[in-house]
Amino acid sequence: MPVVSYEMVDEIGVIRVDNPPVNALSHAVRAGLLNAIESAQLDDSQAILIICTGRTFFAGADISEFGQPAKEPYLPDLLNAIESSNKVVIAALHGTALGGGFETALASHYRCALDTAKVGLPEVHLGLLPGAGGTQRLPRLAGAQASLDIMTSGKPFGAAKAAELGIVDRIIDGDLESGALGYAKELIAESAPTRRVAELTVDPKTASREMFAAYRKNIGKRARGQIAPFKIVDCVQAAVELPFADGMKLERQSFADCMASPQSAAMRHMFFAEREAAKVKDVSKDTPLRPIQTVGIIGGGTMGGGIAMNFANVGIGVKLLEINDEALARGMSIVEKNYSITMKKGKLSSEQVAECLALISGTTSYDDLADVDLMIEAVFENLDIKKEVFSKLDAVCKSGAILATNTSYQDVNQIANATKRAQDVIGLHFFSPANVMKLLEIVRADKTADDVIATCMKMAKSIRKVPVLSGVCYGFIGNRMLNKYFREAQLCLLEGASPEQIDNAMQSWGMAMGPMAVGDLAGLDIGYKARQGIPADQLGDQKIWAVADALVELGRLGQKSGSGYYQYDAETRARNNDPAVVKVVEEKAAEFGVERRNINDEEIVNRLIFALVNEGAFILEEGIAQRSGDIDVVYVYGYGFPAARGGPMQYADQIGTKTVYDAVIQFGKDHNPDHWTVAPLLERLAKDEATFSEWSAA
Ligand code: 3H9
Q: Could you tell me if residue 393 is inside a domain?
């Protein structure tokens, strides 16, 4: 079957595209569309309708073709041909008309859409800008300011808003094709003209030099070193100030520059890595799933409450269990407070919040959990307590219920073995704040059944999380690597860097927060308590955590106590450097015989990031992560790693595994060699000049 077909329906030439799953504008689609639009110029049709079958109008250019030599017809030329048609062209939108798909609609003369359709220009999430006329046509229709918002945010929006902005001309109720054909007939009856957006000018009220200057300033703050958003502003300004053809030239050059940048390569890697991560290599995609209609959560603290909100938000009832009425009331009040914040931000209406809250009920009795489909334990991080909880769950939960632990570190096999149904036990590691963070590490224990894994992967998507499968090890993928990253941060501190220097170096490199600020936010007492439970002979190098422990012993627990690595203003929460911390660091350095020196930012960044990569290489070869891209997804979605660098393993691939290997060898010589045991996989890849992605794909 050809991906593009053409037929006459009454007097309308209908170009129908069928390229599952999302009608991406692949080479075959572009060639077919050009052919059809050219034939339509020569027949008896009075108007031309472009419509797609399946779940959506074109979801954009075919991203899998990026990075390969481009093949004619190029999308911008195809869209110019559509716009130049002598017969009226109508685009009929449904699903998600994104990127090049939305640009195809903008090049058409009229646009109709189902009210459920969404449109948008999400190229910025791929380190790109709209490259098929979007930067030039959208401002001519919707004005410069709205276009900048749409392109720099990359957020899709609904047909109703598109109609308000003058982008969509007709909203269709019911069947799209018959509605669109009816609309086409009306246009023919009115002798509607070929309305070419390229011939319009941008409404000057929506554009001023000051507005562009302010926009650039604003982007400087939020774009975290990305180049595409700035190029979008340049192109939109060109749409205002230059003729269409000149604006198109600038757009084409800017698109090519972005496409050739490591940033876009990293972000495109992330696009596919996120989708791959949801697939489990040895679990068939046809595995029957267990139904999840009710969820039980044990522990109504910040974590348990946050987890509950995820399910309530998508209409799933939750039973929250706490130890007594007082703890339960406290837990419910945290949930209510979080919802009121969401409401204030305008993300949910008061009615929606009331509906969500009605779905969360509290209990203090395990017996009330007898009929839940999925049970998530979110109690204190203590293996014995967790085992006890699971043996109770084993006694009360119905057969077939999935029993999950939200542990960040503990051995899920031991927890599973506390029950007589280890096949039903799994780890679901949510990240704090659980109602906000997108990552969900799904931890497969030795005996976890395939259908339990498949169900949890699907469930994650339905609560809008990004799932990544991890095997069992201390800290799973994310926290096991983080341990090494924090180790280097602590050692840089002892050796001469200040908390502020470390945080600034990491943030300037692109991390959402520096490690010291993260420690203060999470609470320094958490790691302290965990270390208290580890026998001294297993703690390793005592100097690593000497400063952190000393701060906790001084009552400096982080933001919650008003001080940690920094001093926090009680009113504004602004952080200030604190000489008392420098004193503690100097004392500990002297105690452990560490000579303090000037450390440059590059050393800080390389030590912290390469520590992540080296541990990631161990994790990969041990099979704890399925692929290097999975590790990248964990870091970008769970730890504030910059998407424009594509995660630690992709970053290593881009700068060269040999560069990382050489640095790790050197760090081993300059510092404690026990800390820098080279991962054998890193060594092999460096010697073969190969990448983690290639190894994962083999
Ligand atoms: C662009 O248009 C540039 C132009 O301005 C200029 C050009 C010159 N290409 O996400 P899902 C695959 S840039 C190729 O799981 P959902 C995806 O990999 C593009 N493949 O489904 C997956 O494959 P698999 C601008 C694509 O329902 C399958 O489709 N457009 C593309 O959760 C299902 O995807 C975008 O950035 C593509 N464009 O969400 C939109 N899109 O099953 C990107 C998807 O093998 N796409 N695939 O893993 C999306 O945002 C979501 O996929 C969408 C559906 C909302 C459409």
A: yes
Whose CA is closest to atom 49 on ligand 1?
59
Mean pLDDT calculated for residue range 559-579:
93
User: Does one domain contain both 457 and 531?
Assistant: no
What percent of the chain is helix, strand and coil (3-state, nearest 5)? 55, 10, 35
- 101 CA: nearest ligand 1 atom: 2
User: Is 122 near ligand 1, meaning CB less than 6 Å away?
Assistant: yes
CA 601-603-609 angle, to 5 degrees, is 100
What tokens were used for 65?
């073709």
What are 656's two structure tokens?
């060269």
63 Cβ closer than 6 Å to some ligand 1 atom: yes
> Is 303 found in the same domain as 223?
no
Q: In ligand 1, which atom is closest to the CA atom of 126? A: 36
Residues 298/323, Cβ–Cβ less than 8 Å: no
CA distances from 306 to 313, 328, 357 (A): 11, 14, 12
Distance, CA of 51 to CA of 232 (rounded, Å): 28
The three-class DSSP label of residue 609 is helix
Classify strands 575-576 and 567-568 as parallel, antiparallel or unpaired. Answer: antiparallel
Active site residue 103: yes
d(CA 346, CA 341): 9
Q: How many CB atoms lie within 10 A of CB 259?
A: 18
What is this structure's pTM? 0.94
Pocket of ligand 1, candidates 56, 63, 136: which has the most ligand atoms within 8 Å of its Cβ, to mutate?
A: 63
- Residue 243: which CATH number? 3.90.226.10
The CB-based long-range contact list for 581-585 (8 Å cut-off, 24+ gap) reads: 581/499, 581/551, 581/556, 582/498, 584/547, 584/550, 584/551, 584/554, 585/493, 585/494, 585/547
Q: What's the rounded mean pLDDT across residues 558-583?
A: 94
* Residue 694 bears catalytic tag: no
- φ/ψ (deg, to 5) at 567: -100, 135
**153 falls within a domain:** yes
Report pLDDT digits (tens) over 456-469. 999 999 999 999 99
Same domain? For 217 and 331 the reply is no
The domain containing residue 127 runs over which residues? 4-259
Are residues 242 and 325 part of one domain? no
How high is the pLDDT of residue 529? 86
R_g of the chain computed on alpha carbons: 28
Count of domains for the chain: 3
Instruction: For residue 511, give the CATH number of its domain.
Output: 1.10.1040.10
What's the pLDDT at 67? Answer: 84
In a domain, 270, yes or no: no
Q: Does residue 677 sit within a domain? A: no
SS3 label, residue 110: strand
Q: Any idea what the CATH number is for the domain that residue 359 is in?
A: 3.40.50.720
Q: How confident is the model at residue 641 (pLDDT cuts 50, 70, 90)?
A: very high
112 C-alpha to center of ligand 1: Å? 22
